[in-house]
């Protein structure tokens, strides 16, 4: 499969894979989400209770302030239920709130963790910079009597960095899992595309082979059956000869069909199977068969040693000559066909099949044009080229060049 065929499957190499909930579009919480949210709430509440106990242990703090701290801490913990929808806004609010309310510190850390998990680096860096900048404010406004200002500031900074780093690691791991799943899915899709392409190419090869093999035989049947139909008073010798050609062509067509079906039924065979393939050396037999069918064919084969030609190239030359004779028999009956083969190692092989316009009107045999299309594909796949078209005298010609390495 070419790159163009599956380029639409590849995501941008610079884009980060999005995680569920990155844009706050989760339909509803799953059981896992409920467990995580409850755990986060309990962690924030636990840290808040420790901070409230430390404030209550300080006899210098009025009871009213302790009550307000407790209420604000509870509200901050409850606000964590909105962290999946508005993680950045909640983290900013709780960071500013924690500068004056130590009880909200646990909720702030959970909010920072949520931002690191659900948002890319830029928002995380901005919120983290804000949290680090205000880290000295809370120890300055609400100092802990048992801890110095410097120690409290260092602890606050370390907690912020630890929570942000942990959240970014969790996000990276989730992105890795999503990327691996996408790669696995993409690999399966590409494998399916390759299988479909292989099947399509196999069908095209089989259709081309059946056309090349059977069209020649069936055309002989059609021409001679038509002759018997429109000339019932023909001499017995001519009728017998035509009947013999019809019988031999039908037998050979059935044999070719059996061989092709045998190839299809054999799972271990390649595209060519075990049946003998035509080569440049068998071109004389093809010409002789056409002459026996009543065609006027002139062969000018200038290849000194046809058996030395590459098998694939010789087979392609044979198929081109076969298709040219078939077309001449269908569209120019009675006209003399000229088949010319020239070239050699290093120069390549050139084959020309030409026929003049028919001398008298005739009943045309319908054609689809698929044979010439198949010949063009054959020549292109072999590394050569093929052209065809009407001649100035009203006839038709096919000319092909195929490589023959020295």
UniProtKB/TrEMBL annotation:
<feature type="transmembrane region" description="Helical">
    <location>
        <begin position="124"/>
        <end position="141"/>
    </location>
</feature>
<keyword id="KW-0547">Nucleotide-binding</keyword>
<feature type="transmembrane region" description="Helical">
    <location>
        <begin position="147"/>
        <end position="169"/>
    </location>
</feature>
<dbReference type="InterPro" id="IPR050482">
    <property type="entry name" value="Sensor_HK_TwoCompSys"/>
</dbReference>
<feature type="domain" description="DUF7134">
    <location>
        <begin position="32"/>
        <end position="174"/>
    </location>
</feature>
<dbReference type="Pfam" id="PF02518">
    <property type="entry name" value="HATPase_c"/>
</dbReference>
<feature type="domain" description="Signal transduction histidine kinase subgroup 3 dimerisation and phosphoacceptor">
    <location>
        <begin position="203"/>
        <end position="268"/>
    </location>
</feature>
<dbReference type="InterPro" id="IPR011712">
    <property type="entry name" value="Sig_transdc_His_kin_sub3_dim/P"/>
</dbReference>
<keyword id="KW-0597">Phosphoprotein</keyword>
<dbReference type="GO" id="GO:0016301">
    <property type="term" value="F:kinase activity"/>
</dbReference>
<feature type="transmembrane region" description="Helical">
    <location>
        <begin position="90"/>
        <end position="117"/>
    </location>
</feature>
<feature type="domain" description="Histidine kinase/HSP90-like ATPase">
    <location>
        <begin position="315"/>
        <end position="404"/>
    </location>
</feature>
<keyword id="KW-0472">Membrane</keyword>
<keyword id="KW-0808">Transferase</keyword>
<dbReference type="Pfam" id="PF23539">
    <property type="entry name" value="DUF7134"/>
</dbReference>
<dbReference type="Pfam" id="PF07730">
    <property type="entry name" value="HisKA_3"/>
</dbReference>
<feature type="transmembrane region" description="Helical">
    <location>
        <begin position="34"/>
        <end position="55"/>
    </location>
</feature>
<keyword id="KW-1133">Transmembrane helix</keyword>
<keyword id="KW-0418">Kinase</keyword>
<keyword id="KW-0067">ATP-binding</keyword>
<dbReference type="InterPro" id="IPR055558">
    <property type="entry name" value="DUF7134"/>
</dbReference>
<protein>
    <recommendedName>
        <fullName>histidine kinase</fullName>
        <ecNumber>2.7.13.3</ecNumber>
    </recommendedName>
</protein>
<dbReference type="InterPro" id="IPR003594">
    <property type="entry name" value="HATPase_dom"/>
</dbReference>
<keyword id="KW-0902">Two-component regulatory system</keyword>
<dbReference type="InterPro" id="IPR036890">
    <property type="entry name" value="HATPase_C_sf"/>
</dbReference>
<keyword id="KW-0812">Transmembrane</keyword>
């Amino acid at each position: 499969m070419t790159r163009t065929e599956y380029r639409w499957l590849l995501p941008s190499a610079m884009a980060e894979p999005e995680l569920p909930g990155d844009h706050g579009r989760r339909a509803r919480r799953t059981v896992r989400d409920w467990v995580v949210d409850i755990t986060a709430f309990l962690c924030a509440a636990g840290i808040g209770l420790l901070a409230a106990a430390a404030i209550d242990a300080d006899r210098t703090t009025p009871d009213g302030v302790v009550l307000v701290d407790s209420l604000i801490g509870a509200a901050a913990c409850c606000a964590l239920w909105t962290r999946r929808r508005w993680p950045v806004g909640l983290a900013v609010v709780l960071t500013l709130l924690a500068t004056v309310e130590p009880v909200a510190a646990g909720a702030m850390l959970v909010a920072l963790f949520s931002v690191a998990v659900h948002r890319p680096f830029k928002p995380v860096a901005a919120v983290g910079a804000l949290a680090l900048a205000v880290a000295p404010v809370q120890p300055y406004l609400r100092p802990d009597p048992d801890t110095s200002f410097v120690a409290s500031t260092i602890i606050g900074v370390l907690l912020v960095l630890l929570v942000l780093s942990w959240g970014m690691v969790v996000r990276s791991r989730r992105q890795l899992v999503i990327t691996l799943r996408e790669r696995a899915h993409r690999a399966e899709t590409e494998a399916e595309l390759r299988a479909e392409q292989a099947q399509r190419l196999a069908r095209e090869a089989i259709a081309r082979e059946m056309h090349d093999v059977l069209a020649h035989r069936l055309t002989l049947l059609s021409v001679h059956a038509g002759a018997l139909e429109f000339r019932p008073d023909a001499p017995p010798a001519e009728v017998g000869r035509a009947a013999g050609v019809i019988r031999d062509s039908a037998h050979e067509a059935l044999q070719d069909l059996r061989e092709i079906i045998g190839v299809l039924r054999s799972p271990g065979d390649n595209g060519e199977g075990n049946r003998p393939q035509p080569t440049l050396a068998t071109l004389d037999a093809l010409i002789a068969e056409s002459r026996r069918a009543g065609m006027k064919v002139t062969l000018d084969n200038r290849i000194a040693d046809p058996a030395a030609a590459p098998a694939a190239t010789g087979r392609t030359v044979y198929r081109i000559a076969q298709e040219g004779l078939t077309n001449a028999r269908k569209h120019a009956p009675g006209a003399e066909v000229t088949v010319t083969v020239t070239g050699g190692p290093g120069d390549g092989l050139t084959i020309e099949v030409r026929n003049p316009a028919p001398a008298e009107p005739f009943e045309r045999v319908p054609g689809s044009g698929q044979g010439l299309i198949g010949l063009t594909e054959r020549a292109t796949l072999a590394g050569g080229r093929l052209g065809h078209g009407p001649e100035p005298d009203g006839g038709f010609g096919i000319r092909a060049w195929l490589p023959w390495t020295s």
